[in-house]
Amino acid sequence: MAHDAARDDHMRWRGFTVIRFTNAAVLSNTNGAMESVLLELGANNNIATSD
């Protein structure tokens, strides 16, 4: 976990947004995980998403 935190800090320092999902969350709710990614992309880049 410390390695993950260090990697996240580095990515944020480089200007990236880090979002995390557990494997279980992605496997049980793939559409929800994808929607979260699309919403984050839209929020940060003014990208319009379509249904």
Total DSSP helices: 3
Structural class: mainly alpha
Helix content: 55-70%
Shape descriptor reads flat
Contiguous runs where pLDDT drops below 50 for at least 5 residues: none
Radius of gyration: 13 Å
Our estimate of the beta-strand percent is: under 5%
Instruction: Describe the sheet with the most strands.
Output: none
Distance N to C terminus? 35 Å
Number of strands: 0
Describe the structure.
With 51 residues, the protein is mainly α. It has a domain of 30 residues. The protein has three helices and no strands. It is flat. The termini are far apart.
Question: What's the short story on this structure?
Answer:
With 51 residues, this protein is an all-alpha fold.
List keywords for this structure.
mainly alpha; 0% strand; flat; single chain; 51 residues
Helices and strands in order:
Blueprint: H1 2-13, H2 23-28, H3 30-45
